[in-house]
Amino acid sequence: MIQKTIAEIATYMQSEVCGPYDPDTIVKGVTIDSRNVQKGNVYVPIVGAHNDGHSFIEQVKNGQAALAFWQKDHTPYPEGIPLILVEDTIEALGQLAQAYLASLDAEVIAITGSNGKTSCKDMLKSVYSLVKKSAETPGNRNNEIGLPLTILDFDADLQVAILEMGMENKGEIAYLTRIAPPGIAIITTIGSAHMENLGGKKQIAEAKLEIYDGLKEGGVLIYNKESPEIEEVLQEKKLDPSKTIRSFGQGGTLSIVSSIDYGKDSIFFKTNGIQDLIELHALGAHQAMNALPVILAAKYDGIEEATILQGLKNLEMTKMRTQLLTLQHARVLDDSYKSNPESAKAAIDTLLALPAQKHIAILGDMLDLGNEERKLHASIGKYAKEHGVDQLYTYGPLSVESAKAFGENGASFQTKEEIVQALLPVLQEDCVILIKGSRAMAMDTIVKQLTAGGSMAKLKLGVVFGGQSSEYSVSLHSTGSFLHQIDRSKYDITCIGIDEGGQFFIYTGPIEAIESDTWKKEEYIHPCSWMHKGVYDKDNEIFIPLDVIFPVLHGKNGEDGAFQGLAQMMNIHYVGSDILASAMCMDKEVMHILCDQAHIPCARYICLKAWEEQPSFEEIQEQLPLPWVIKPCNAGSSYGVHFVEEKSQFEEAKKDAFKWDGRGKILIEEAINGFEIGCAVLGNDQIQVGSVDEIEIQSAIFDFEGKYAMKGANIYCPARIDGQTFANAQALAKKAFRIMGCTGMARVDMFVTEENEIVLNEINTLPGFTATSRYPSMMQAAGISFTELIDLLIDLAMEKEVSAC
User: Fold this and answer.
1) Residues near 726 by beta carbon (within 8 Å), at least 6 away in sequence
2) To 10 degrees, what angle do helices 444-451 and 416-423 make?
3) pLDDT, tens digit, for every residue of 286-295?
4) What angle do CA 529, 531, 532 make, to 5 degrees?
5) What distance lies between CA 315 and its chain's CA centroid?
6) Residues β-bridged to residue 716
7) Has this prediction a pTM greater than 0.85?
8) CB-count exposure of residue 125 (10 Å: 0-12, 13-18, 19+)
């Protein structure tokens, strides 16, 4: 890892150090995680979607960090630790990594591509480490934060740096190559991943070929000849005569010239570049293709053929990438790390190349494929059928199309547990089972359950309900529906009720008592207190551990970050957005400010604050024409919301809105001429949208009785809007979810104007879960049942680090 003096770090950053310090102090290593600070570290606080690393500086000082970077806009500056002031800490992290790498005498090999990056990286490491000290990108640290951290972990005597370079948008590869200019650049393939962002394969190739522009003078580009988009873009580029270009695949500089034969856990093939038969310790024809750029790079660097052959033969692949496991009489091909159409077809080819009486494919959804996603999923089902797969099981709403296209012996399952139960009997047969899907689908849990014989330890789930909120009754109804629908075979459930006074109780009574608000009977409840990773039952004097909490709470103290803060302090995973995102979405003024900055259309508004002088009706009217919607900034379920058409309604509406807000802020919004729609959003890093619904109301606003008793209101799901407006609504919902830093779930409410434009209304981070609630209904319309939705939300909570929940 980096070991430099503070003075040397300051020179790298071209900056002065603030505060008292010893310039000869040695700093060792860099971290962005305050929990992992070691004595002598440089701490780089990252301003993320969910947390701001600057907030944890006291913890960093306690960990005896030697130095911290600090964004100039975060004032006042902390004392007690030397600081280097920077404009942007992410860019500063990259600048430090760039300077450190430049100080090393290390060759840089950079790899990008839609598929095969990690396999190619593993092969390069296996070959190069036989002759030189080599290090590679660990895991998926291949972005603007991960790549610099990888570099800063390198030892000073490193000879070869093997770096993955990932991207989702144009310009990202260019940025990474400025940090780590490669001498050898490899593009493994161009596929369909990121089409949603970039539009098409040619645009993806243009973005990937930024790696050529970033090559050092005299460097070499090695690309896949079988990806025609690369050649098309290369022909349009002005090429640098100092740079060499080589290709692999059919018609390329290096190609496979034999059949590919399969052994137990290896493949055998020949190329036109090496005389001897190549044994590659991996499975799949696509892995033979991934080996070709490795051979070209190694030969370009003068590595002997015998060494190349040895490295490929002794390859150790990263887990969840064509990993073959033996379970009883069957074999499981675990390729569950990611999926897109090209890699799915390659995995099916690998499945069918393995000898067995039966070949079964288990496929989860492929995400981020854009408007063609259903067609592309259907094409995979058809491909599997035509190429000889015996059975196809799918999981996820998009993969239903794969099962349909497969036809007979194709089936779509609502839960992964159902798939496991269907597979357990065939483990006694001579079969190979492929398991593959996008990372967000967590298909590796199927592998884990099969390995465990179909059973896994139940998650210890806390279900929290009630609360000090005007929406207390809504929480009780939601909790009843939730408990009726959850699959109890998967969870050890502890119900924790909060009464109107804010006291916590472990609840052991029937669901019906929650629904009827008779749950606080003495025989049902036990006072409890929160502890690290669980709750303490005071009556029975026992500690109850919790893995994850599902807060079925609405409104204040539940949806506004308050409860999220409690769970986070107790180090317990929880469903839904973190403290900051919950608070920002709850406060409608803050939401307006951030969404306005992101150019998301919102209604024009004025925010009135109780501690400020109030403008008159006439002064407001000069800025906003009537009619108005007056609402609390911090309340939900339409409490305190009024439609104001004339002056006589104003004072009473304002007074009522302030009463329900409770924090002294209300909004006066220009009423939108149109109708209300909503969209369900689900996910963390990868997000998916549910259907879009439409609200038809008889009154001016969608009030409490309309929402929960359906009086004077009808909901249509899907909405009665044209396809383009539907897609626009989903896109805006997705953007708002991202901008506000949401995770887990949210219902994004919008308006469709008379001009057919979409305008954001508000974002609900813990939407209702009653029988008539919109969020579960929209996900149901997208193919995700209520029970499955609960499982997915808990999975999403568990995949986050506790401190990032």
Assistant:
1) 692, 718, 719
2) 40
3) 899 999 999 9
4) 165
5) 30
6) 694
7) no
8) buried
